[in-house]
Here is the input.
Amino acid sequence: MIQPLPGLLSGAWAAAHPAALEGGAVRTWGEFRLAAGRVAAQAREAGGERWLLACEGAWDFATGLAGLLRAGRTVVVPPNFLPETLARLGMEAHGSLRGAPAAGPALEDGPLTGSVVFATSGSTGEPKGIPRTLAQLDAEVALLEASFGGFPPGTPVAGTVPHQHIYGCLFRVLWPLASGRPFLAAPCGDPASFLTAMALAPVLVSSPAHLSRLLRILDLEALPGHPLAIFSSGGALDRADALAWLERIPAGVVEIYGSTESGGIAWRRQGEASGSEAWTVLPDVGVTVAEDGALVVTSFRAGPSPLRMADAAALAPDGTFSLLGRLDRTIKLEEKRVSLPELEAALEAHPRVTRASVVLLVGARPLLGAAVVLAEGCGEGEEGEGEGEGEGERRRALVESLRRHLAQRFEPVAVPRRWRFPAALPCDGSGKVTLGLVAGLFQGTRP
Here is the structure.
């Protein structure tokens, strides 16, 4: 059963039905309706169209979102809770909610209206607001249940990703609420909370970075329980990691491809079978490829016009597609076109490399920097440029080996001049590797 989002507070679930699990306690639907009603009453009394919803706890976020939509407000959701971010977004808002509502009267249950604006930092750090109508969010939730909701009713939903990003909001909060499944209010990205969550045999909402990290720090064979389903988004899951999870979780990992602007576009479940790395388009989505190779998406959830994605793609005769890298990461360096995804793929083909990210370091003389995660036993986690005085012979030999490897395919200008060897690529709270964080590894180096 799925409850349409506009009628979320209209009584589909009994008052005693679990809505969330928080700190070992069950939060009921009766509590949810009361808290949402109080938010709605306070928003109605305060007035103002645009409200900032900056609740760090998922329970307060969920009740706040429902309450502000019950009051018909435009809800602005920040990408993080940093003071500067909240101050900037707060200047554009007429009101804000940053925690549980104060005790007081509650607006009676009724339909949710309004809309949500997800403020994103963008892959390059440039902030922007992406509006989503309630109808679009409702269509997404219904699609998720129809496509992936085959696990038993009442199955709890746990997540390692933030609830304020659209992926976490949909998969960790709205879909569970609409389907009557309790969500774990606290994230479970650290080992202790992950073990506690796994004892519940939940649905797990995660990301490639978190899934990769969990494989390396936990003995999955010794877990108290296993997730019934795993979802991953925010980037492509490494095939080796996908197969490692498949060995332990029979259903494997369902990867979701999409964006804040488009919603979900396609899914895949990588396995041993040939072709399992291709993406299957979701039922309400149409895809084409533009002349320059960009994927173009058409769906109600993506808006009234075809949406051009920043990813290049190749369509297969059976309707699936493959992703070929981001178009906006082809740069010009000394009048030469350089594809950063192609460089990264070439580095990851080196036998001593697990992951790689290449960024443009802009200064008096622009050049490339490469952050490389080495395979186990190859000096993983050693920081440094890999060149210059004081570096060991082993490090210089490694960098030269990587440069020679790239020189077989790329002109000299495309071979990175600066090197970092972190234990893992830096990622934000959602587990997504961003160019800004990678570039931060090179702070203090020339230029």
